[in-house]
Design brief:
By secondary structure, this protein is an alpha+beta fold. The protein is built from three helices and four strands. The radius of gyration is 13 Å and the shape is elongated.
Amino acid sequence: MSLRELLLKGRSFNEILKQFAIDQADFTIRDEDTIMSNTALFKREFLRERILIQGKSKNEVVNFFGTLHCNLLDKLAVFELDGVERTAAA
């Protein structure tokens, strides 16, 4: 299961997307492939990683900075939002 799918299972992350008018299909997790390919991380029960999530709405690009907390055994993820950066869409 991808980090994206784990986050979308949580209600609070979906609320963040709604607040910034970002559709569930219009966000990416920067370096998700790199995180998912690090087998040392997945030998642990819990994963805690600083990440950048980039979402796109009609008028702007929104960067969410924060920490991803995952319980890999229960397949649960929570995104702890630290900051937001908004720029006009090109």
